[in-house]
Each structure stands twice: as structure tokens, then as C-alpha cells.
Amino acid sequence: MTTTTLRWKIAQLVELQWWKNYLHKRTPAEYLGWKRNYWLNLLQTIKAETFLKPTAKILDAGCGPAGIFMALPQYEVHAIDPLLDAYEKNLAHFNPSMYANVCFNTSTLESYTNTQHFDTVFCLNAINHVANLPACFDKLAALTAPNGTLVLSIDAHNYAFFKHTFRWLPSDVLHPHQYDLREYQHFLQKRGFTIQQCHCLKTGFFFDYYVLVAQR
């Protein structure tokens, strides 16, 4: 087992426990109402109406228990996450039957297969968590239809010193991958994406939180 794979397996275990702790004192109705509004605000920020057409087929990659799928009831959505079964078993806040328009698939992004392309692919709060980063960017490109849109959120390092330190030391156990904004943009551009929007939604000392909107 490689160091990267081990870090990913640890991150998955910690991820589930993080959700349990985070949602412990939040009722499903309270949290899901807040989260839906959060996603609707994000869709406004990125002007989603300019690329989300009424007939769009959507992928929510790394959806978690309350992904953007919950704010898109009028669309055909596929949602994938390797922890979906664990979320359903352990979290009252995730009930797949609430989302009749969503096809859920318990799968990593690397191993996910689908013969269709998606007009819009969302990968939010997820790319930092994957096991094989290059393979996941390849898969995102393969799943996005020609002229389709990828919406990607990232925690991007502000300082090269801490970026390299975090790569060598497991200081940020939830995130196996440590890159800066320029590197993430390059991952997209080398796979044929054109970055159309870049929004900094939250600033911090080590990381800033960005959402990138790119067209294939």
C-alpha cells in the first residue's frame, strides 16, 4: 500500500467521523434547509443560469450526504460518493428516497463508469479528498460533455512552505492532496478546460477556498 493510498483510507475514516460530530446537534430539517440555501446562493454566485439549461444532465461527483443534488430537483442528477452507504446507515440527515430525481452510486470518482456525458459536472468539497488526483481529473474531463461545464471547489494553499510541509507531514488528515490555485488551474487547462470564473469564497491563513467554473 502506497503512502498516498494509506492517507486516503485514513481520510475516509476521519471524514465519516467528522460528519457524525458536525451533525450531532443539528436536526435533519434544520441542517438540510440551511444547506439547500447554501447551494442556491452558490448557484447564484457562479451565475449557473448561464450554463444550466432545462434539459441538462448533471453529475455531482463526491456529493457527500448533502451535496448540490439537493438544490436541483428539476434536473436529472447522478450523484456519487464512496461513503454513501455509510452515510445512509449512520446519518439521519441523508435519506436517498427524498430525492426521486437523483441516481445515487456508491463509488469513488476514479472507479466510476458511465457511458453518457454530463452537461454540467459539479465536484465540490471533494477533489482534495480523492486517492488518485491525476486519475480523477482525467475522469472529470472524460465525463464532461464537449462544451460542457465543470464546477470545481478547492482548498488552495497560500504559501509554498506550508504546501510542501503538509505534503510530507499528515498535518491535514482530511485532505491527502496539497496544491495551490495555479496548480489546480493547470490541472484543468492541460485537460482541455478553459477557466471562465474564479471565485474566492473564503479566506484563511493556510488555505483560501475557491470555486472554479471551467468549460471543456
List the helices and strands in order.
Answer: HHEEHEEHEHHEE
CATH topology call: Rossmann fold
| Tally of separate helices | 6
Tell me about the largest β-sheet: 7 strands, mixed
* Mean pLDDT across every amino acid position: 91
| Number of DSSP E strands | 7
Question: N- to C-terminal separation?
Answer: 34 Å
- Assembly annotation: single chain
Unreliable stretches: none
What is the CATH domain class? Alpha Beta
Inertia-based shape:
globular
| Helical coverage, percent range | 25-40%
CATH architecture field: 3-Layer(aba) Sandwich
So, the CATH homologous superfamily?
Vaccinia Virus protein VP39
Q: What portion of the residues fall into strands of 2 or more residues?
A: 15-25%
Textual characterization of the structure:
The chain has helices at residues 3-23, 28-45, 84-90, 133-143, 160-168, 181-189, and strands spanning 57-61, 76-80, 102-105, 118-123, 144-157, 194-202, 207-215. With 216 residues, it is of the alpha/beta class. A seven-stranded mixed sheet has the order 3-2-1-4-5-7-6. Helix 4 links the parallel strand 4 and strand 5 (144-157). The radius of gyration is 17 Å and the shape is globular. The mean pLDDT is 91.
In short:
The chain is α/β, with parallel strands linked by helices and about 220 residues long.
